[in-house]
């Protein structure tokens, strides 16, 4: 048995997405996003997000989506206020600072990898506004789901954006796993984003079945106008964009994105319930598809030997489910752990 629980990035590509690429693979089409598929994608995004003027920029990675979005939202002297564990701050090699001309990121605390409103308020109250010796907060960046599998509810997002707007900060949402957040909350894409005060969304697709295809979705005009140039200068206006657009269009059609995310979230729920029954301590209570657990080294060794792939971080392990994880695979992992707990 081999069961992939290292990362949803390790999962393969949804067949429907590969088919969509094959479907557009006939004849010629205008390059650099001038094609009909890219136009259809923008229309589809406007429908899905109930926003008649939303604009879409396909890019190649989640890091690019975040760094480009933020570069269009902050001046170089600005600070992007994010959770202290945010992917943009801890895991993207400073891409945002590079593309945003030196803007910095400032981490704010909060339980469960979610920013606490009081911590955001305290941070903004402590800033020396107008003092050029200090970076000026210009953007609030939230991540949902977080890297801990936790998801912000609509009221939680609104509360944070409300605080940010009192200081004229613009708002970015890192939605590398946005579909998992939609499924987890049951809220509409519009309610989770622009209706809750989000200006720009990094809409992930790759972790949920696409092939190096992500999108920046702009709900306000100014960042979109800049992104026309910024995407080109950073090499993200690909000549054969129709193949990325076809993927994203298929992703947002017939609920593929939500079906894929629902599978990942449901498999995670089954896994957590099973780990709980086996008395294995969980370090987080995931809304989406990532969990951290405490498993003794010897048990983790045996699980690995049985063919289960996962990351080990000191005495902790991380399990991530994906669009293609099956109930049988989860049963297999739990069965394996159960046998180890009771070796009779
Ligand atoms: C929350 C979050 N944002 C952004 C990214 C970046 O995506 P990519 O690896 O495609 O650059 C990741 C990747 O794991 C992520 O977990």
From TrEMBL:
Read off the Gene3D superfamilies from this record: Aspartate Aminotransferase, domain 1, Type I PLP-dependent aspartate aminotransferase-like (Major domain)
Q: Which residues form a coiled coil?
A: none
Ranges for the Aromatic amino acid beta-eliminating lyase/threonine aldolase domain?
A: 4-295
UniProt keywords (A-Z) are:
Lyase, Pyridoxal phosphate
Query: InterPro entries under this entry?
Result: ArAA_b-elim_lyase/Thr_aldolase, PyrdxlP-dep_Trfase, PyrdxlP-dep_Trfase_major, PyrdxlP-dep_Trfase_small
Q: Which GO terms describe its biological process?
A: amino acid metabolic process
Q: Name the cofactor(s) required for activity, per the record.
A: pyridoxal 5'-phosphate
Domain of life per record: Bacteria
E.C. number(s) listed in UniProt: 4.1.2.5
Give TM segment ranges: none
Which molecular-function annotations from GO does this UniProt entry contain? Answer: threonine aldolase activity
- Annotated family: Belongs to the threonine aldolase family.
Task: Tell me what this protein is called.
Answer: Threonine aldolase
Lineage of origin? Bacteria, Bacillati, Actinomycetota, Actinomycetes, Propionibacteriales
